[in-house]
Specification:
Blueprint (H helix, E strand, L loop, with lengths): L3 H15 L17 H11 L1 H14 L1 H7 L4 E19 L2 E23 L1 H68 L5 H36 L26 H11 L1 H21 L5 E12 L9 E12 L7 H67 L5 H36 L4 H9 L25
Antiparallel strand pairs: 1-2, 2-3, 3-4
Helix pairs in contact: 1-5, 1-9, 1-10, 2-5, 3-5, 4-5, 5-6, 5-8, 5-10, 7-9, 8-9, 9-10
């Protein structure tokens, strides 16, 4: 069972995953290959989640102007013109006299008011300021998350293509093994049991190939949903595994990353602003118990403004101060205050939950990055050892020391080792990016660095550093 076709197929599979998974495209088309930066640029234009985040930021940024408006002067103009019908009755000694009036009235005036003391308006201004600040931080979080989501989906497609390429390579090897087993049985050199084992394994791998095709299609659909229909079915540039060394960033320990995240993570900063906004909302609700004072000035022109002013025209200027003291509102102010206080407590608890979840994920990404060098090295050695075991087992079968079942087991281990090696490399890359994302320091320069790993020419390797590491994250966050 040392057929050249089967051995060649497995050597090809080893080379494919040793380079971190070149894509396998069943249509054999010469479509232009898209790299990570190109897909990321497409997503920056077409991703609905990112576009929605931008729209939300524009909407929430107006909270500052809305809150400030309650502290600024208010100028209004009022105009009325009417036709009036009035009947006046007057009781006299000689009886009741009635007089009908028909006249046109007119009123026009400007009113300018300026709050002098309004605790609710000031609290609403502070709330709007906090919400506007939170909007900018939330948008920054979404911008960083876009890179993580694109890389997640991009590497999922590459991993699915790797799994499909391996399944097809294994399928071709098993077909060759099945033909050889049949020849051995026909020549009296093998057993029917060996032939059945190979055929059964071939059917299983055939089913796995179909499953890998479905997985590859689903992964591409997820990526296309982020990057937009312009991505089409173009193949993706593979990962240059040797370039993972350029991502070496071991200057910080876990405590430093945690401190960085607590101070720089935009999601936590945004939630702290929302806690402040809820605190100001509570103050605004409590301000319903306080009086308000405003300065007003009015210029008004009236003509026939009442029955006793028919034919009279008045041009009136008024300047004054208005004091309003709340006395009873049916319990509205107390209820609104209690509601706002509960919302403030809710926001504080949500901030605490988000902080814990973020630190937990940051620690997971940190240890994934830290251990990935050993993991990738171990998987690489396992893949090489599995390939040698397949070759040695086949030679043993020729000598009568092993059976086809041993070959099938060796092939399965080789497939799993190659698949795990690919996953470990993709996981390292995603964990490296996610670690910086959770720490709040993910920049466009980091996106460029990741993009170089998928370029046509692999990046230059540094003089020292880890061979690569990484972990899978679900992204949002």
């Amino acid at each position: 069972m040392t057929g050249r076709a089967g051995a060649s197929a497995w050597r090809l599979a080893v080379r494919v995953l040793a380079l971190a998974g070149a894509c396998a495209w069943p249509d054999g088309s010469g479509a232009q290959v898209l790299d990570f930066r190109q897909v990321y640029d497409m997503a920056a234009v077409a991703d609905p989640t990112w576009l929605a985040a931008q729209a939300r930021e524009r909407a929430d940024s107006e909270e500052l102007s809305l809150g400030r408006s309650g502290l600024l002067p208010n100028l209004s103009y009022r105009y009325t013109r009417a036709r009036n019908w009035s009947q006046a009755r007057q009781q006299a000694v000689l009886g009741t006299s009635t007089q009908d009036y028909r006249y046109s009235s007119y009123a026009s005036g400007f009113t300018l008011s300026q709050p002098l003391f309004d605790a609710a308006a000031f609290a609403q201004y502070r709330e709007g300021q906090a919400r506007a600040d939170a909007a900018g931080l939330t948008l920054e979080r979404a911008r960083q998350a876009l890179a993580v989501r694109v890389l997640q989906a991009y590497t999922d497609v590459l991993y699915a293509d790797d799994a499909l390429a391996l399944a097809r390579a294994q399928e071709r090897a098993l077909r060759e093994d099945a033909r050889r087993a049949a020849r051995f049985v026909a020549g009296g050199e093998g057993t029917r049991t060996d032939q059945v084992e190979v055929e059964a394994r071939a059917r299983i791998v055939q089913a796995q190939t179909i499953e890998a095709q479905d997985f590859a299609r689903d992964a591409r659909n997820v990526l296309r949903a982020i990057a937009g229909p312009a991505m089409g079915s173009a193949p993706l540039a593979p990962l240059h595994a040797a370039g993972l060394d350029v991502l070496c960033d071991g200057a910080r320990d876990l405590a430093a990353w945690r401190a960085l995240a607590l101070s720089r993570n935009p999601e936590l900063a945004a939630q702290r602003e929302l806690v402040e906004a809820s605190r100001q909302r509570y103050r605004a609700a409590r301000a319903g118990h306080y009086p308000t004072v405003r300065l007003y000035a009015r210029q008004q022109l009236t003509d026939s403004n009442a029955e006793n002013q028919i034919g009279q025209r008045y041009d009136t200027s008024t300047v004054g101060i208005e004091l309003s003291i709340p006395l009873y509102s049916g319990g509205h102010t107390s209820a609104a205050s209690a509601q706002a206080l509960a919302q403030q407590q809710e926001a504080a608890h949500e901030l605490q939950a988000s902080t814990r979840a973020m630190l937990d994920d940051l620690e997971r990404q940190y240890y994934t990055v830290s251990s990935s060098r050993r993991r990738i090295g171990a998987y690489r050695q396992a893949a090489e050892a599995a390939a040698e075991r397949v070759h040695a087992t086949r030679r043993s079968v020729e000598g009568g020391e092993r059976t086809n079942l041993d070959v099938l087991d060796a092939q399965r281990q080789q497939y799993e080792s190659l698949r795990d090696l690919a996953r470990a490399r993709y996981d390292y890359l995603l964990a490296w990016l996610s670690l910086r994302w959770q720490a709040g320091v993910l920049s466009q320069a980091d996106v460029v660095r990741v993009g170089t790993l998928f370029a046509d020419a692999p990046p230059a390797r540094p003089s020292r550093g880890p061979t690569g590491r990484h972990q899978h994250t679900s992204g949002q966050k």
